[in-house]
Design a protein that fits this description.
Elements lengths: L1 E2 H11 L4 E4 L5 H9 L6 E4 L3 H15 L4 E3 L2 H4 L4 H10 L3 E6 L24 H6 L4 E5 L2 H16 L5 E6 L7 E2 L12 H4 L8 H13 L3 E5 L1 H6 L2 H11 L3 E3 L14 E4 L6 H8 L3 E5 L22 E6 L13 E4 L2 H15 L5 H14 L17 H11 L5 E4 L3 H9 L8 E3 L9 H11 L5 E6 H5 L3 H9 L4 E6 L4 H6 L15 H7 L3 E5 L2 H12 L5 E6 L12
Parallel strand pairs: 2-3, 2-4, 4-5, 5-7, 6-7, 9-10, 9-12, 10-11, 12-13, 13-14, 15-16, 15-17, 17-18, 18-20, 19-20
Antiparallel strand pairs: 1-8
Helix pairs in contact: 1-7, 3-5, 3-17, 9-13, 11-13, 15-16, 15-22, 17-19
């Protein structure tokens, strides 16, 4: 007989799970013990806070397309970890949650403290998890636990990716099982994972090709599904094959390098005017890997996208997303990479005669006319420092192989609007729930799995306050991430919407993050003058150690970045 938790560890190894992020609690310390025996195959990271664990796992899933595991005590996995889980759920990122119900001594009916079984006098953790996962199961015995872990891994990556959860009852941690005689039988995990993603049929690929070839002013809108499918090459190849300009959603930023001649930048009220104008005046809109959510389409403004006048082609891995917001001319359920490759092949077979040079020159002139990535404030020498100047200086030090991880609030608006990505897959941003503090642990995960890349994470002071535990995590694991804090002593995005006479709840004294960073063993620098910013960023990013640049910035309302 074998302990159920040892079987779980073997299943994670079979699945190729590389990381478990979390913090021991409840009965999970005993599960962590079994993972420690597999430390040559699985790395456990002490996240110091459950929310940090879920955000790290979220970023791992975005970068690799594979799930990481988060683990901790039930009550805190359903609360502290929730904002990273919700982000992954809405953004479509694989993640596996393994937790427990804290029904001490198997007394869930008699109100043991921290109990999460859902009985009277207990927290209903199963319902909490079901509200923000694709799949949640409660394991009452060793067999249910082993099968639950297998299915959680399978469901996390099948179809539209997302988080899944397995909740252990207290008795399971010491339960035993014979894998060869389990009922129902426990089969090798590989057989559950041999599932191909949904794929476009040839007839639909040909119809899309015909429509794009015949279009006079087509535009492609790419979303997070392109990041998930790693379809960067296909997006650029199709764009160059037909001379189609490419706009992106917010979470689709950098699905094509924004320096590319055919790139238009992000859509929506904080996007590029070039992207919005092209979408508005397109005759055919080809949406790939985006649900066309309101934030990306000016809150369904009837003047922005007009489905009765424009033809919409939509490709998404989730069938419920196709034709969800707008009626479509052609709707396809498919992985983005497979769909784009099929359309490319169909276009090549048809050998259309297209004056690509003329189309590209037209788009280049169009972008100049609409001041693509231009902003007069980026060269500002004002003090406090203008946020746009921070973006400008980060742009100068960040290379094409480096990663930019955005957080929430006004800082992400400035970077979305002003930072021009130089390589596909360079920018990642939380946009499912866009929780404050997501970027700091996400940046740590990006650095952890990309030790040869430089990772820069711009954040607001409000976001940094919510993620101070990350300072210790980075120091412990020697992660040379660079945090750039836009410190204006205010919860800027919220403040912008409030009555000017009633803003005391959003304002506070300027925090000293540079000193906090130094106390945690980081390189910490304080910048108050524009001319100091570039050298400080260069020193930080080249230091090869955790570094924080605390920049005193002016309070610039995000409204200044809106494009109408």
């Amino acid at each position: 007989m074998t302990k159920a938790t040892e079987i779980m560890a073997d299943i994670l190894v079979q699945a190729g799970i590389e990381y478990v992020f979390g913090i021991p609690g409840g009965c999970t310390p005993f599960v962590f013990e079994d993972l420690a025996k597999k430390q040559d195959k699985i790395t456990t990271i002490l996240s110091r806070q459950e929310g940090a664990a879920s955000c790290m796992a979220d970023m791992y899933g975005r970068l690799t397309g594979k799930p990481a595991v988060i683990m901790g005590q039930g009550a805190w996995m359903g609360s502290n970890a929730a904002y990273g889980i919700m982000e992954a759920y809405l953004a479509g990122v694989p993640m596996v949650i393994i937790t427990e119900t804290s029904d001490y001594a198997s007394l869930p009916l008699h109100q043991p403290y921290q109990n999460c079984t859902g009985d009277y006098g207990a927290i209903d953790l199963p319902s909490i998890m079901r509200s923000m996962t694709k799949f949640t199961t409660v394991a009452n015995n060793a067999s249910e636990f082993a099968h639950g872990v297998q299915l959680a891994i399978k469901h996390a990556i099948t179809g539209k990716p997302g988080p899944t959860a397995v909740l252990m009852r207290w008795n399971v941690v010491n339960a035993e099982l014979d894998p060869d005689t389990a009922t129902p039988r426990l089969y090798p995990l590989a057989g559950h994972l041999n599932v191909s993603p949904p794929s476009i049929i040839k007839e639909d690929a040909e119809r899309i090709a015909d429509m794009l070839i015949a279009a006079k002013k087509p535009v492609m809108i790419t979303g997070r599904g392109v990041h998930a499918g790693k379809a960067y090459t296909e997006v650029q190849e199709l764009a160059e094959l037909l001379g189609i300009p490419v706009a992106t959603s917010y979470m689709g930023k950098s699905t094509i390098p924004e320096v590319h001649d055919l790139a238009l930048g992000t859509t929506g009220i904080i996007g590029q005017k070039a992207a919005n104008e092209r979408v508005t005046h397109a005759d055919v809109i080809f949406a790939v890997g985006t649900g066309l959510a309101p934030e990306n389409i000016k809150m369904l403004s009837p003047e922005f996208i007009r489905p009765l006048e424009q033809k919409i082609i939509q490709v998404d891995i989730e069938p419920l997303h196709v034709g969800w917001v707008y009626p479509v001319e052609i709707g396809v359920t498919s992985d983005a990479k497979l769909a784009l490759r099929a359309v490319i092949d169909a276009v090549k077979e048809k050998k259309p005669k297209i004056d690509l040079e003329k189309k590209i020159e037209e788009i280049k002139a169009f972008k100049v006319e609409h001041k693509y990535f231009e902003n007069e404030y980026q060269a500002s020498n004002d003090t406090p420092i203008f946020p746009g100047r921070v973006v400008e200086e980060v742009t100068k030090v960040l290379g094409p192989d480096d990663l930019l991880v955005l957080d929430a609030g006004n800082n992400r608006i400035f970077f979305t609007h002003l930072y021009q990505s130089t390589k596909a897959g360079q920018v990642f941003a939380g946009g499912g729930v866009a929780a404050m503090g997501w970027g700091a642990p996400a940046g740590l995960a990006a650095q952890l799995i990309n030790p040869d890349k430089r990772v820069v994470c711009p954040m607001g002071d409000g976001c940094m306050f919510m993620a101070l535990t990350c300072l210790e995590t980075a120091a412990q694991y020697d992660l040379p991430v660079t945090y750039v804090i836009l410190n204006n002593s205010v919860l800027g995005n919220v403040n912008d919407f409030m009555n000017p006479e009633l803003r005391m709840i959003t304002e506070y004294n300027e925090p000293d993050f540079a000193s906090l960073a130094k106390a945690s063993g980081w390189m910490g620098m304080k910048v108050t003058k524009p001319q100091e910013l570039g050298p400080a960023l260069k020193e930080a990013i080249e230091s090869e150690r955790p570094a924080l640049v605390d920049v005193t910035t002016m309070h610039q309302p995000h409204f200044s970045m809106m494009t109408f």
